[in-house]
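Thread title: Can someone regenerate the structure for this chain?

I was given the following input by a collaborator and told the matching structure tokens would be attached. They weren't. Posting the sequence so someone can regenerate them.
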Amino acid sequence: MSGDNDKAGGGDENHPDNKKLSGENWTSLREKKRGCTDCLCVLLFIAAMFAMTILGFIVTGVIESDKLDKGDPNLLTNGIDYDGRICGATSGVKSRKNAYYMATGAAVCVKRCPGDTDYTKFVCYDDNQASADGDEATAWGLVGDGKCMYHVKTKAYLNRCIWVEDKSLPDANITSVAGEYVDLTSISIPTSYTDPDDDNVFTRFFADVMEQQEVIFGFGIGLTLFLAFLYLYFLRIPGVLFTMIWSILIGILVLLFVGSVMLWSLSVDWEDSDDRTKNEWMSMRVFAIIGIVLTVLYLCFLCVMRSRIMLALGIIKEAARALAAMPVLVFMPVIQSLGIVIFLVPWTIYCLYLASSGDVDVRTESVNGNDVQYKVITYNMNIRYAFLYLLFCWFWASQLIVAFGELVSALSISCWYFTRDKKSEGNTTVIWSFKTALFKHFGTVAYGSLVIAIIKTIRAVIAYFQKKAKKSGNKLLQYILCMIQCCMWCLEKCMKFLNKNAYIQTAIHGFSFCKAARSAFFLIARNILRIMAVSFVGDFVLLLGKVFVPLVTLFLTYLVLAYSESDNLANLIPTMIFTGILSYFVTSMFVGVFGMAISTILVCYISDEEMFPPEDRFCDGPLKGAIKKSQQAASDTQVVPEEATEIKDDKPKENEEVLL
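Best answer:
Regenerated them for you:
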């Protein structure tokens, strides 16, 4: 294997899949002829979603089945009345879905919640309603017994009548009215309710948010995107990224060295002191030696990785250029979020109906002398398997949407890279990438997301057994399941990383998923140190952007609010909080796209090296300079065996090039 690869992670050099990529006869990636990949997985995904829809129709009652009963979400959300019946769901109260509460806390099912307070109208237990309607004195007596309640102004929340304050009432309130009929000292009648007044802190909080919603959205989205693109431009300024990264790397080296020297000096002082034991100063000396060893190892690491870190800087700059040329790519996460919301609407409905299709049992327990009723729902195995299938569908659909966004980003960035005239590529490239991913490679993202969905489903099953094992108290089983869960977590992370690189291979070469995954695996193995360097530097740059952009956004928002809008606000905090949250999420989406761009540029660069001779390569700008420097450094240090020197041509073969 030639010197341009990282031999330490190169794997089996003779493996048929571990060959360098061969050159292709095209001058632009758009010229490449592509076929539809993994079509069977498209049909499998459609079949899975169709089966999910059939399952949903069964639990919603559209289709009848003897395996699953029709569900009723009212069983989950509605209150329980005094007789243990679920309002709006149980026979006898199906037409009365709202729960109206007595002074004792017991509830009566009603059709509508009272909209005004009226001391002459009452809601009572079914057996007492007629007598209460006929005589007001009897009704008040039943209020004292906890079997009736006068009309209180309420609002319906989740089919429960919640008492609120009625400010239209005169000062002569319930005390003067009820006192004519009952002894108020013998009963407890509420005279205050939960509705906050206009001066409540929560009212002012949300009033400020509504008042400044233009600032929140304008700064949280508009200013954040502007600062994010400004951050990309900042990274492309010559010397900025170099100074930033190497200052941190050298700073870590200095801290390790100074810390080791200080520990050694402290151990010497303690050795000469009569107040310190031998164990104390020896422990300090051991830590000092460990620090010195770590310093030497870190210095060796910097020497080995120096050229690769420089390559990482060039790749990050190139990724910033690509993203700046196609700014509409930043909004790809918005489309993905919309897709997830569209899927969640029917999926959530199916889950609610399925969750309510079990056997409902209303139980009563005594708490502090009061009877408290609650619902227990039991599920048979058919319902449990249906839940597991719905969970699998969620994992597959959500991961497919994420993978589709990654493939669109990879297609856009790789198309920009493999173009001679990069100025000709722009937002239209993203549209081409979207159509190509949808009509040519949708099966590939379906395949890759299916793998992740299966792993996630297995992890969900293991988590269920972990919960059961914890209840049983079996420590050995808990340890075994915990280890299996950790292994599955690692497998999921590895597969996500491999999938991302497989999508990049599909974007460049049009491979199917399996071939792209094999190609990505061996490409990673051949260039493991490069990928480590780019991951380290890239993650730091992304983290810095994730912190820098929201902080600057919040600072500018504060200046605007403090010096131009302060008279209109009760408090600056609400607007700042919502602006910060929105800015953070927008920055996270931007950073996700930028991270994918960095990974794509790295793979494009390596593929460019392996597929084309130096004079025909597509890289330019910082990457071209990095290649020249690495070639010069490698050629200065390469030792050619004597036997090879005798038979070597004047013109080196392509696989004899010495690259970074």
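The CA atoms of residues 473 and 551 lie 47 Å apart.
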